[in-house]
Amino acid sequence: MSTQTTPTKRPAPGTRVIFRWRKWDGGTHWTHECVYLGSDEWGEWFGQPAGWRSHRPGRNVTAISPNVTLIPASGDYALTHNAAPATYRIYIDLAWDVHWDGPEPTGIDMDLDVVWAVDERGLFIDDRDEWDEHRVEYGYPLDVVEHLESLAVDLEGRVREGGAPFDRSTARRWLDRLAAAVPA
Known about the structure:
FomD barrel-like fold; seven-stranded mixed beta barrel; 3 helices; globular; about 180 residues
């Protein structure tokens, strides 16, 4: 759902970047320290080694394990694979307009998340309460609401099926690239 044109030049794999999320109203949200890893048929990949920081107003998190994030060309979600010992193996942020803004990736976090937890919760769609609250508060357009609600269900099914890019072998390939780009 990107409204931006795709730049022809990306940073070299291994380049540190800051990934900035905002909310629909333009408010500040998560900021992640990342490294650009490259792209494949699924989209653009970023990595975050253990010990790197993510923060938002009121919260500061240090990654306990390496993770890699895919941004597909559609720009309507960000798929993160977390290595052990993280409690979420897959975390998908539904999004709007994820794109490059100059040298940095940016996007709008749209509240709904598809999560595969390694505990008894398993696979589920998270933050429906926040979604319901914000779609009214921020006035999400009906076409955006319908698209993202449908996409959440579709992504949940695709994670359950385990095909690429939601599979462990795709994640392993990019986690290996992250380890090579940023040695421990």
